[in-house]
Every structure is written in structure tokens, then in C-alpha cells.
Amino acid sequence: MKKWFVYMLRCKGGSLYTGVTTDLDRRVAEHQSGKGAKYTRAHLPVVLVWSEVTDSESDAKKREAELKKLKKFEKEALI
Fold first, then answer.
1. Is 15 left (phi over 0), alpha (psi -120 to 50) or beta?
2. pTM score
3. What gap in Å lies between CA 13 and CA 61, rounded to an integer?
4. What distance in Å separates the CA atoms of residue 67 and residue 78, rounded to the nearest whole number?
5. Neighbour tally for 56: CB within 10 Å
6. Is the peptide bond before 45 cis (omega within 30 degrees of 0)?
7. DSSP letter string over 12-41?
8. C-alpha 78: how far from chain center
């Protein structure tokens, strides 16, 4: 069974980016190299600050949606 990761990156300026992937190391490297999401390309450098493993894509996307609804101070409390 494939593992899915939900993760948060701290971007230039202190903002937080949340995403999902099946290969955390590869995805973080993509973001850091400027080949990730449009948002992170414009806010380099990025640093992985939090991640969580889930058992399914559905669970990962649900958790991502929950995290994106949080206020920044609530996200910071997780980190």
C-alpha cells in the first residue's frame, strides 16, 4: 500500500505552503529547485517544517484541506 504525505513548507517571507505527495524527498527537492508549485517558485527558498503520513490519497487530501483552513497561528502550533 502506497503511503501519502501531507507536508508544510516555510517559504521566503515566512509564509507556509501545504501540499500532498507520495515521495516527500522528491517533492521537497522539486520545490527547492524552482520546479514545484507556482506559489513556491515565487517564494524561494523553501524549507520542510512539518509532515504527516496517511494511508490513502483521499485521507491526505482531506487533511490538506483541513490544514489550509487553519489560521497561520494554528499552523505554527503544529510545527
1. beta
2. 0.94
3. 26
4. 10
5. 12
6. yes
7. GGG-EEEEEES-HHHHHHHHHTT-S-HHHH
8. 13
The answer to whether the CB of 76 falls within 8 A of the CB of 50 is no
The type of residue at 52 is E
Identity of the amino acid at 40: T
What is the domain partition of the chain in residue ranges? Answer: 4-78
CA distance 66 to 43: 23
Q: What is the pLDDT of residues 31-52, one digit of tens each?
A: 999 999 999 999 999 999 999 9
Assess if CATH 3.40.1440.10 describes domain 4-78.
yes
Confidence of residue 1 (pLDDT cuts 50, 70, 90): confident
Query: What does the pLDDT read at residue 44?
Result: 96
